[in-house]
Amino acid sequence: MHDLKQIRDDPQAFDAGLKRRGLPLQSAAILALDAKRRAAQTRLQEHQQRRNEVSRQVGAAKSKGQDATALMAEVAQLKDAMEAATAEEQAAAAELDQILAGIPNLPAADVPDGADADSNVEVRRHGNPRNFPFTPKQHFDVGEKLGLMDFEAATKLAGSRFVVLKGALARLERALAAFMIDIHTGEFGYQEVLPPFLVNDQTAFGTGNLPKFGEDLFRTREGFWLIPTAEVPLTNLVAGEILDESVLPLRFTAHTPCFRSEAGAAGKDTRGMIRVHQFSKVELVSIAHPDHSAAEHERMTGCAEAVLKRLGIPYRVITLCTGDMGFASQKTYDIEVWLPGQGAYREISSCSNCGEFQARRMKARFRKTGDKGTRFVHTLNGSGLAVGRTMIALIENYQEADGSVVLPDVLVPYMGGLKVIAPRV
User: Fold this and answer.
1) Is the peptide bond before 194 cis (omega within 30 degrees of 0)?
2) I need a surface site. Which of 2, 6, 178, 243 has the fewest CB within 10 A?
3) Where are the domains of the chain?
4) What residues act catalytically?
5) Long-range contacts of residues 93-97, Cβ cutoff 8 Å, at least 24 apart
6) Rg of the chain, C-alpha, whole Å
């Protein structure tokens, strides 16, 4: 959500941010609606003052035995005028809120301009792609040959864009998540949380998923939303709170299932586990002091990178351009892993600094000890990592010619000593 006062103070800067996002200028329409709302408020206050004055005159006239009919008629007229001004003010405020709720965050000054992913900027790479003595396969070919990745059974159970994992691959999913959580909690100071997987409207609104992106979510008949990522409940842990400055930053992590309708994804990654309706992810969320959120963003990205470094999977970090960022983000780093089966880098994590955008929607603030005033916190979120996509990267990078998959040493203890996932004989 945007600060209306900032738009009033510098509408040109607001429009410039929208233009960088490739969006139409909106400050004039917003300020016109704001002026209408404020004018209605002023009329309401004037009518209220006049009504109070006339009411006193009615009382005085009656106490003197004078005719107060005309004054009482004016009181009635003022009451009607107040109701009309209230209705106009509420309608303008509701329209203004609706407009502001649908406008994305403005990009940070150092975010590259561009219309789409072609304008994203690579920041760094780590690790060299493996030279295979054979043509590497994509993960679904390896998984199906292992007999442990079953898309046909998933389609029978639920439809397309689902998968059934069995045996060692089912355990590998669990092992990867535990490995990630142990790193983030044991080394990087994140507090593990097990949040609800269903949230209400206000919680989804707080992170910017509603009202604009309802079609991307699954909703129950009872009105709950299945979380698209643990960012939603984790960030909202501070909704409505006034935190003491001394507790910042707060760092949360969670391993949860995630549910996405993949609206608009027809024809994209229809085979395999890249784009499915249900997947699991280890999420990282930080609630930070505004002065330190940029540093926290770099730190969070480094925490996600650490997982890939220890797994020995090549990756690159890119800065998303203005046209490719998410709705709530003011700056985003994507981490992309090398998938030899595709011969391409694919996203495995997005780490975003949302500034105060989500905090305004959630009314999440902090206060410095001894101060009366409050400030909005900054919120950050990132995948640390998407577990299914990490499995994909591991399978493709560690596959062997015979169809087996060699496990990185760091995962062997989590796999009960298993070092190689071999195909069925």
Assistant:
1) no
2) 6
3) 4-101, 117-421
4) 260, 275, 347, 350, 389
5) 93/37, 95/33, 96/4, 96/30, 96/33, 96/34, 96/37
6) 28
CATH class of 117-421: alpha beta
Query: What is the rounded (10 degree) CA torsion for 401, 405, 410, 413?
Result: -140
Q: What is the pTM of this model?
A: 0.93
DSSP 157-193: HT-SS--EE-HHHHHHHHHHHHHHHHHHHHTS-PEE-
CB burial readout 60-86, b (16+ within 10 A) else e: ebeeeeeebeebbebbeebeebbeebe
* Contact predicate 358/379, CB 8 Å: yes
The SS3 call for residue 197 is coil
H/E stretch holding 286 reads strand 278-288
Architecture of the domain spanning 4-101: Orthogonal Bundle (1.10)
Q: How far apart are CA 423 and CA 403, in angstroms?
A: 6
Q: Give yes or no for residue 369 having a pLDDT over 90.
A: no
Structure tokens at 48: 């209220």
